[in-house]
Amino acid sequence: MLIQILKLLARLPLPVIHGLGVCAGWIMFFSSRKYADWTRNNIAASGLADTPAAFRRLLRRNIAETGKSSLETLAIWFRPYEQVLGWVRECRGWEHVETALEKNQGIIFLTPHLGCFEITSLYYGERHPVTVLYRPPRKAWLEPLIHAGRARGQVKLAPTSMQGVRGLLKALKHGEAIGILPDQVPANGEGEWANFFGRPAYTMTLVGKLAKATNATVLTAFGERLPWGRGFIVHFAPMQALPETATINYEIEQLVRRKPEQYFWSYQRYKVPDGVTPPETRTEA
């Protein structure tokens, strides 16, 4: 029954999907106190809203955009691949991709929880192979849905495990691209503390290690959601500094500042993973 509902959802025009998504966003916000608190607290702490009125405006827009993201993701997974690609109205920064491809040393795409991050790998995967790192879901029944929705075109998936990391390294050494969510909180031993909007966030070190091992080009990728269901603009841009945790967080911040309402402020970006010493209680060796 659920599959049939999702297939029906995917058939709807994108403006309708986004309209329903706005309603879904408010339902999610009011149905979970924790979700609402995380959203409010993260937006307030970011410093992006300098007045109470600006905070309320950004909060309202973020609730709507987060709901759009949830429903559009399901629609993207179940809609025919060619139709999904038709939602991309424009690509900006493709020249950076072409320059990186000419080097034949691989590309690392950093795609944060901003806008429609599902669309960027599918867009690139129509043209070239890309291996995307993903965290397997806790509910096993979701696994085949994720693979069916994301592993299309020339997109392959690699789980967050040693086997998955080896797959990423292999792809880079073959001159191919990989995709990583750089603001996903890593497990103990896989990150270090670095500031993100002025607060310490446990940030993965994998990107820097892969770039150093392969000399791959690091680019940011962002799927900007256009208003009124008009589609998406895919943006590619080069990193302005070496991909260390601090510079990665800085690059993500700059992207978020362009469209703060489209960031996943409800995500627990500042949580302390099991076994990790919180930054305020660390002791120097």
Distance between the termini: 57 Å
How many strands, which pairing sense, and closed or not: the largest β-sheet?
Answer: 7 strands, mixed
Can you tell me the residue ranges where pLDDT is under 50 for at least 5 consecutive residues?
Answer: none
Radius of gyration: 19 Å
Number-wise, the strands total 9
Q: Name the overall outline.
A: globular
Beta-strand content estimate: 15-25%
Instruction: Please report the number of helical segments.
Output: 11
Give the helix proportion (percent range).
40-55%
Order of helices and strands: HHHHHEHEHEHEHEEEHEEH
Task: Give the overall average pLDDT.
Answer: 94
Alpha-beta classification: alpha/beta
Count of domains: 1
The neighbouring-strand order within the major sheet is 1-9-8-2-5-3-4
Layout of SSEs?
Elements: H1 2-11, H2 14-31, H3 33-46, H4 52-78, H5 81-86, E1 88-92, H6 94-103, E2 107-110, H7 117-125, E3 130-134, H8 143-150, E4 155-159, H9 162-173, E5 177-180, E6 191-196, E7 199-204, H10 206-214, E8 217-225, E9 232-238, H11 245-258
Parallel strand pairs: 1-9, 2-5, 2-8, 3-4, 3-5
Antiparallel strand pairs: 6-7, 8-9
Helix pairs in contact: 1-4, 2-4, 3-4, 4-8
